């Protein structure tokens, strides 16, 4: 039987050409698999037909938008996941979602190889291949751009030589990856990190500097899951989509950063993730109200490692699963409402309400009703500071003066 | 000899009354010490004279603004210190600065007790007392409000009964602590955490929602120290002051959060810290450009612990000193220029330039000049993902299906 | 109705006297509760009767040995919990087990106060009281020794004055706490930390220096739970008891350390925990074989924090629960057999066998059958070291010479 | 000019053959560099002459024993560095020491390539190459065994064909790496992880099971540096050598473990490191006495990361340098004497003495002289447990029962 290769197919020039290119390089039949994670663009059926027209022996398309929101974006929201304190892992989250469909297709069609369209210097190749080897260690991975020298120019030539039904228009200056959780843009002039981005780069967000009316929103969570927006029940997907529109209209979620890639280099990235940033901002503050201090302090470290793991393509790793065990437990009480004003590029929480609140008005107030017993503090401070004090006594003993001058 | 108490003196009603109150309670002579950490307000000499008029046997005043900026705010900037990812530790930084002056005064004047005006349910009592016991373990601490039941009403009565030269106007609804690094506000109606702050609460910042022109600024750092603004050399104090004005004018640095106090309760706090937020934002991005990935990842954890320690009043603790050893080393190459647009409440970096940059255009670019050898990636991915892959093989062996359905 | 106090009762002099002492101080009825966590000694029924004879209005006794082993010791084994890398948390584990019974008794008998026999300078008072306030925040805690100045001498006098049925023999020089997981000893001459312990201090272990035959044992685990010893099925309690005997006979599990108490002081402690140390040693090595590297590395940090939390009396805290979520997940594959030689104070693993092993002979071997593709390493090393290399290039660029001399 | 390759030369068969092999493969002149890190064996001059006899154009030998002890072993002692809580990094420490000499030789002789004898599946190839690229990013690395298929059999054939002056005796069953800090052994029959090691495997240590007299030793440290043994001043090298003899005679420092290699596989390793284990054991306990609690707790995490970094070959990385900043500061007060009994494979501390001690007899004692104010504890416990208690009140409020049954 002819060998079979499952290809992660987008419908664009590169992966359309890759169908024939892989067939030529390997002699294998190519099965195209397109997964909709909310990237927008063409109808899935159009994409499916194009794959066949380009030579695929089979083509599968899957609407994975809800699955992507529930199983990938939601854990990121509950982890307040921001790589390098900024980037909500947009592309990093979509890769494992797509990988799962690729592996399922490989098993269904008896393929022993999976192919993807990534280059050899980015993070996505790692995310695809580490993901695949963690779900299906028996599968081999190939990347025509990286492994078979399928450059853009050669792809266009191949396309024309084989009369493939794709427009080979002049390349857009932007290299873009997008899904419902956000959008990543790279482009030549931004590789000079002193250059500022121009308005033309953005699509999910409007200019935050344009004067407009603020938009106030109330987001309700149940155990860390966004369940309603302004009192209207929503799925996770709907919450993201709705906030993409409303937060995007206020210019929220633009990110311009130099980031550390897994392959060891620094790169400059522009992201837009209005819904993601609005949801994480709200979730963080609801945690401030409902999560106990020591748990909250430790969770910050867990969140950071979780974000690094996912960024590094280790979604299906044992450590990721164990961190999820922690995060799920930590979200047990993250239930309540957060009111935010969205305006001028900022989502600002100004109200919180929760049946699970640990904020106790009577302990916090300085007015009538104060129940905090201040006489306890003396003993607390003395013992809390004891180990530092003893260390200080050592200093005195030794004649150190700690720079006090005397 | 009569015993002597050094009192942290602000010039306001509470600490002015405390002079006499402490004298009555303890029979000791009271020495008032006022430290200027940029809180603004009255002239130091006026304050000094009032202390004497209120019964202090001695009164000392110190302009510690530069010292506060250099020795307390600067380490916080180099640590990107944001407690709970938000609060730049404004009050927490000023306490150790004041403590050092109190201890020096106690030694100079032979006092065996230090007094402060804090209540018994906040963080500041801990910061004062843990600080004092770490610098001078032999000193005793007292707090008239907490230990001698000196309530506001009783203080006013005392003031009137003793004809102290202080206006006993009706209490402002706001409880405020401020210094050059920022301003903290608590007030009754905000103790309902569903209530939004009103514009009246703010003083260091203008309303970010008001339409106005953006302000572009270039901040230069040398080894993590801000050394110039728009090419003009500045001291750390000047950098903070200048950015307080410019970032404040754009509404930058407002914070509204529920926070975890050291004494175990949650409280709602409003802060303004325009200069601090602008400087930390710039410093963070310059680190993104100049600090190696693994160091940067680890530093995030160190920063978090540093912020918790300082928030918790452990400025003079052995762990704080050791973390400073790490942070100083990590800032060794944080040298260069950051360009930011300040507008509408946001300070957004859009350009970076550094002789110490680790961003390598030739490795990062996808255009001509690319020097990254993509053939290396295959081996990297395979070995990087090896331990997860082997774990996955165990799963396959065991017949687990990882939820792939088959 | 007369108020009721539940007292943690041991049957010894101090808590026997406390029954009447508390009654006198508070006017409340005292209910004695004794919990058997494997401390050995008298029959529970004897203890129950003595409580009544000493004036308790009710006395409850509970055999909690299995519960203690399953719910408290087992999580510690799965966490490889060693406070300060040494101490298996013996007493710290028993306190929450006892607390649960005290709280249940308080609710059953309508008590509003819980009393315990601890002093005011140790960890156990915190473990009792923090535990009680986390399970039953409405209960008040008292400690006669600390709060009502019930010194040893006064207790003896009280005992004699009231003809209580307890022998008031001269105090043993040792202060001991013990349960099935181990034994803690403090004594006057060891408060000089230069003094070595004498053989007389030990009870669970024989002198490791005495020549004797080694004992080889195979311990089997299922998901981190010890389920068999030398092929014989055991409960967790039996595993601990059996290894207490066999490892104890070889002098295993003696610990002599200066430790950091929660109340800020350092103390010198002698522990014996033969079963605990043998089980943790075996469990650790089985993890080495069955847990993926990154998970294993992270788990070490989690273990340390888990041990600190439990030592600090925060067994019932939200963070502890979330760390348990992590640890449970991490133990999912810790299944297999560990062979150990026990001799001369050491438990040394020398064989491991597991169906869940991640050790792959074919990848590890340097002999025939090697399946590791060494050609992958070049790319791995190059990219793995890339970020350090780029940082080094900056150094070269800047003329630094890294101390190479040239 | 002919290109030049610097080869890490051991004097053994593999690297002797590599001289000619590299010359043939690359056409370059080979410069042999042998570094003595205490591995014992032949005289350096003999080794130098053999290199020349085998075709090297230059041969350099360096006695780096003191340098290795001071600059590599000492930081490991101060970090209590034990990879996976067991392995004192023996080989991992020697690689950067050797690398520094290789790079210096390459610069001196104008070489553009460095060669080493490692295979392609171990850690050492990474340690060599990551080290070299961090010190001299312009140098290229090659490994004949890995890159030019120089197998053992082919090496023997080459040796005979070229009449090289090396004995090509039948290969020892053991693959060994050793230096003054310890010894690592791998061998075929131990690749079955159920097999126990045999006595024949060990060389630095005698059988711990053999009855013999205990050996008591006092080790003195100054700021974490071992400076005297039994009162006799020593260099770091002498301390290690002396304790290798004395602790080795007692069978101390044998390690048998399954470990996680950087290349993603698990391997089974046997180590002996008597001096290292004795010194680290003593150093740890002196830290228990002299380091403040919070610093000690945090240092444990730093130690673990430090060990992982060094194991992973990142000795010269920026993160390693910053962690060293922390560790140096933490060792500032680690001064004093530790008395240990060494016997039966165990080094057991039984006495500590320090002018920098934080152990305070008067605070710790339960006897006369106790200065700890127990009345402080009540307030401490109440506030220390406050956040957990408030979380518990939420539970009560919600009708949860925490499994208490009622």
Automatic annotation (TrEMBL), chains A, B, C, D:
GO CC annotations on file: cytoplasm
Database matches in InterPro entries: Arginosuc_syn_C, Arginosuc_syn_N, Arginosuc_synth, Arginosuc_synth_CS, Arginosuc_synth_type_1_subfam, AS_cat/multimer_dom_body, Rossmann-like_a/b/a_fold
Cellular compartment(s): Cytoplasm
Reaction(s) this enzyme catalyzes, per UniProt: L-citrulline + L-aspartate + ATP = 2-(N(omega)-L-arginino)succinate + AMP + diphosphate + H(+)
One of the Pfam families matching this protein, by short name: Arginosuc_synth
Domain Arginosuccinate synthase C-terminal: 174-390
PANTHER family assigned to the protein according to its UniProt record, in alphabetical order: ARGININOSUCCINATE SYNTHASE
Name of the protein this chain belongs to: Argininosuccinate synthase
